[in-house]
Structures are given as structure tokens and as C-alpha cells.
Amino acid sequence: MKDIESYYESYSKDVIPKDAGPTQLSETRAAFYCGAIAMFEMMNEVGDLHDMGEAMKALDEINAEVKAFIEEMKMNVAMQTVDKIFKDVMT
Question: Do 10 and 37 lie in a common domain?
């Protein structure tokens, strides 16, 4: 199993601009780790549930939220692409 730092390194290679300054690097890493900590706390809460049905419902809700976020990000990327196309066409 990969550790959090490995996931961060993979993420940062794909997302952080090569010319990012030290503040952006530090804040991005902090935000990534805060997300990991939040997810860890949520998994602990799910693990503390005594009813398997409640635990499965909680995991389903987390899964639905993650999927909704992914769709939101896809829309943001799509909108940026549309904006770029219109800017290119209009200039």
C-alpha cells in the first residue's frame, strides 16, 4: 500500500506548475495532507460504527460525494476548455 507522501508526489507532478513558488508548494502540500487527515478521521468513524448497514451507508455516502466532486472537476475543466476556445475564436 502506498503512503500519503507517495500519493502527494504523484498528485504534485500532475497538478503543480513547474514554476510554482515556495508558498504555493507549501500550501498545496498542506491542503493535500489536510484532506488525507479528514479522510482518515472519516474512516475511523466508519470503523467505529457497530452496525454493518450503517457502515456501508456511510461508505456509500462518501463514495457519492467523491464521485460528485470528480464530476464537478470535469465540468470545470470542460468550462476552461470552452473559455479557451471562445477566446481563441474571438481574437
Answer: yes
Mean pLDDT by 10 residues, the chain (91 residues): 93 92 96 96 96 97 93 85 69 57
Instruction: Return d(Cα 2, Cα 28) in angstroms, integer.
Output: 19
CA dist 66 and 39 (Å) reads: 11
User: CA–CA separation, 33 vs 25, rounded Å?
Assistant: 12
pTM: 0.74
Per the CB < 8 A criterion, the answer to whether 58 and 45 are in contact is: yes
Identify whether residues 17 and 39 lie together within a single domain: yes
Q: Phi and psi of 18, rounded to 5°? A: -60, -30
In our burial notation (b when 16+ CB lie closer than 10 A, e otherwise), range 31-50 reads ebeeeeeeeeeeeeebeeee
